[in-house]
Amino acid sequence: MPVTWGPAHQLHAKLFYTIEALGIGDKGHAAVFTSIHKESNYLSNEESILQLLETFDFDRAEIKKQMNSFSVKQKLKRAMEISRQLKVTAVPMLFVDGQYKIEAKRSHSEMLFNNSVSVCLEGQSCGAASSAAVSSAANSAPIVKVQLSEGSEHIVKMLNSGEGGQMIFEPAVLKVSLGDTIHFKATDAAHNSVSMDGMIPSGAADWAGKLSQDISVVLDSEGVYVYQCDPHVMMAMIGVIQVGEAVNLEDIKIAAADKKSAFMMNSDRLDNYLSQL
Ligand SMILES: [Cu+2]
To answer: Measured in angstroms, how far is the CA atom of residue 248 from the centroid of ligand 1?
Structure first.
């Protein structure tokens, strides 16, 4: 079931069901994946969706008919109701029998995620063993607090793929001293580093790096800074730096709750990062 948190997700959920209605299943979903993740076409409006579906040799009228059909609308409505009832807060998340909620917290817990699912689906009784698997999956990524980085200069790489996932800053969470310099390195192309509005210490200087270029930033205010990569903010390509004491952490957390709606993927990344401070 696709997620339906905000208008953008709802549009994509509608696309998901339209693809099913048009009978192009896997091919259609693969085309959406390629468009969003490889071509950076986020399909954020109806026109771009129509254009994508037209590549499957449907005419526009037929696509619109399916897209606005009673059946697709009902499925979207149902998805919204279910995700509200089950409190779906992250992807991927798996519900078994309405009883067990399994969530992959980090990419490296995917294996555990799959294991706990098989225990529950294959086992004769979905009892104690599987609950243990479920809870170990949920707790598989104990929060490790970030340590103060030594030295006064620090490197953050901008990557297509890193240990923590796709489209990611590495390290994504840093703790440094007042006045330290961060060198953002364009290791992979088509990324940048831009401080996020309302998510740096008050009075701190903001920055905006250009695409595919290194940028060095001196952090001369105490507190927490959150920055993003402009082209990949929807995939939560963001990073967090704590300078000295995290004096503005509560303000950042409040602002984060708001910013999260912009993330179509990895929507728990920001919370994960902040929990490491
Ligand atoms: Cu990027």
So the answer is: 26
Residue with tokens 């209605």: 21
Could you state, in order of their start, the residue ranges of all structural domains in the chain? 7-85, 93-138, 153-275
Q: Residue 111 Cα, ligand 1 centroid: separation in angstroms?
A: 26
Mean pLDDT over each residue of the chain, to the nearest integer: 83
Number of Cβ within a 10 Å radius of residue 101: 16
For residue 196, give every residue at least 6 positions away whose Cβ sits within 8 Å of its Cβ, in sequence order, or none.
226, 227, 228, 238, 259
CATH architecture entry for 153-275: Sandwich (2.60)
C-alpha 93 – ligand 1 centre gap (Å): 25
Distance 231 CA to ligand 1 centre (A): 6
CA of 168 to the centre of ligand 1 (A): 7
Q: Options 2.40.10.340, 3.40.50.620, 1.10.1270.20, 3.40.30.10; which CATH number does 7-85 get?
A: 3.40.30.10
Per-residue pLDDT of 263-275, as tens digits, reads: 888 888 999 999 9
Structure tokens at 183: 């060198």
- pLDDT tens for 223-269 read 999 999 999 999 999 999 999 999 999 999 999 988 888 888 888 89
Query: Higher pLDDT residue, 125 or 209?
Result: 209
